[in-house]
Amino acid sequence: MDLSILLSLFLLFSSLVGLGQEQHPWHQVSPGKDVPNTVTAVIEIPKGSRGKYEIDKASGMIKLDRVLHSSMVYPSNYGFIPQSYCGDKDPLDILVLCSVDLVPASLVDAKVIGVMSMTDSGDQDDKVIAVAKNDMAYNYINDISELPPHTMKEIVQFFLEYKNLEGKKVVINKISGRAIAQNVILESLELYKKEFANKNLNHGN
């Protein structure tokens, strides 16, 4: 991560502390006004990173979970959809294709184009595929079928192999288009409401 990104993160978190804000990105950020066509994605990992960053559920900060055991890097920006929940007890994952590497902890309007259904170590682990709505290099794409074929090949190869050296198995079950992806998102938002309806979310879950 270059110095400009680190400086941006420092200024972001300094401003939040200075204003006394404690907004939790999972629980208190809106999933967007045009769900499920476009969602607000919270970025955890920039494209090209070997660092597996993820939200710390207690604090809402971005934490380094691990450095990937392989020499592979994330093929796209990666994060989650706020106020969503899945069977693996995490928010719904999303990959955001964009012509720039997005800063961790940033928000991006992401146009939903598809979903990759996976099983990770036996658990269902869907990945929504989206494009940055405000990036002219990608926002003309409306469905995963419109992506250059090699783009999805790179994404599939990454997720099939990135945990091999950890002794964990990932299976890609199916790649589906926009309509299926939108249903997956709506289901995850409903599951979130059922799971967290009666919980105090001021400091995470």
Low-confidence stretches: 15-20
Between the first and last Cα atoms, what is the distance in angstroms? 29 Å
* H and E string: HEEEEEEEEHEH
Shape: globular
Strand order of the largest sheet: 1-4-5-8-6
What fraction strand? 25-35%
Helix fraction?
10-25%
Number of strands: 9
**How many strands, what sense, and barrel or not for the largest sheet?**
5 strands, mixed, barrel
Number of helices: 3
Rg over CA atoms, rounded to whole Å, is 16 Å
Mean of all residue-level pLDDT scores: 90
Q: Strand pairing plus helix content: what structural class? A: alpha+beta
Task: Give a description of the structure.
- Helix content is 24%, strand content 28%.
- It has 3 helices and 9 strands.
- It is of the alpha+beta class and 205 residues long.
- The chain is globular.
- The strands form 2 sheets. Strands 1-4-5-8-6 form a 5-stranded mixed β-barrel.
Features:
alpha+beta, 205 residues
Short summary:
With 205 residues, the chain is α+β, with helices and mostly antiparallel strands. Helices cover 24% and strands 28% of the residues. Mean pLDDT is 90; it is low at 15-20.
